[in-house]
Write a structure and sequence with these properties.
The chain is of the alpha/beta class. It has eleven helices and five strands. Helix 7 packs across helix 9 and helix 9 packs antiparallel against helix 11.
C-alpha cells in the first residue's frame, strides 16, 4: 500500500515539473501565501483542492472539528506565524456539513480524550439549545456546524495576535465558511471580521445566540 503512495508521489512530482519546470525551485526558496486555512482534519476536505490553490499558496492548520481554542498552543503557534511572520491577509475558518466531530460532541457517547477537545461545541449547543432543538435532525446538525464556525471566527478575531495586527494597521480579514461534501461547494456565512469594531459586533451576536 505504501509503495502505491510513493509511486503516486513520483508521478505527481513528474507531472508538476513537466507543466512548470521551476515549480519546486520556487517553493524551496519562499513561502508567501496570503491565506491561512483553519479546517477540519476530515480526509474528505482537502484544503488546497477545494479552492484551487497550489502548494505554497495556502497555509493550513487542521484539527478535529476545525476548532480555534485560545488554550491550544499548536493552533496559536500557527496563527502567530501566519499573522506575524508570513503576514497572511485572510484567515478562513472552514467547517463542513456532516462533520462527525460536531455530532460526536453532543451525541452523549463517551470516546475518551476527544470529548475534552470537543467541549467548546457542547458550549455552543447549550447557548443555542432552544433554536437548535426547534429544527429537524438534519437541519439541526447543519446549523450546529455553522454556529461552531461562527464561534471559531470569534475566537480567531479575539486573539491578541490578530488584535495587534489590526492595531498596527495590518490588512487582515477573518472569514467563516462551511464546505458541503455533497456538491463540493463552500457556503460563505458572511461573518467576515476585518477590524476590532466588527469583532465586537460578532461577539454581541454570539452572546445573544
Amino acid at each position: 500500500m505504501l509503495e502505491d503512495l510513493k509511486a503516486n508521489n513520483r508521478a505527481w512530482s513528474a507531472k508538476k515539473t513537466q507543466v512548470d519546470p521551476d515549480f519546486f525551485k520556487r517553493l524551496e526558496n519562499q513561502q508567501s501565501p496570503e491565506y491561512l486555512w483553519i479546517g477540519c482534519a476530515d480526509s474528505r476536505v482537502p484544503a488546497n483542492e477545494i479552492v484551487g490553490l497550489d502548494p505554497g499558496e495556502l497555509f493550513v492548520h487542521r484539527n478535529v472539528a476545525n476548532l480555534a481554542p485560545p488554550q491550544d498552543a499548536n493552533y496559536l503557534s500557527v496563527l502567530q506565524f501566519a499573522v506575524d511572520v508570513i503576514k497572511v491577509k485572510h484567515v478562513m475558518v472552514v467547517g463542513h456539513y456532516g462533520c462527525g466531530g460536531v455530532r460526536a460532541a453532543v451525541d452523549g457517547k463517551r470516546r475518551g480524550l476527544v470529548d475534552h477537545w470537543l467541549h467548546p461545541i457542547r458550549e455552543v449547543y447549550a447557548a443555542n439549545r432552544d433554536a437548535l432543538e426547534a429544527l429537524d435532525d438534519h437541519d439541526r446538525w447543519d446549523r450546529l456546524c455553522e454556529l461552531n464556525v461562527i464561534r471559531q471566527v470569534q475566537n480567531v478575531a479575539s486573539d491578541v495576535f490578530v488584535q495587534d495586527a489590526w492595531a498596527r494597521g495590518q490588512s487582515l480579514s477573518v472569514h467563516g465558511w462551511v464546505y458541503r461534501l455533497s456538491n463540493g461547494l463552500v457556503n460563505d456565512l458572511n461573518v467576515t471580521v476585518t477590524n476590532p469594531a466588527e469583532y465586537e459586533e460578532l461577539a454581541g451576536f454570539t452572546r445573544e445566540g
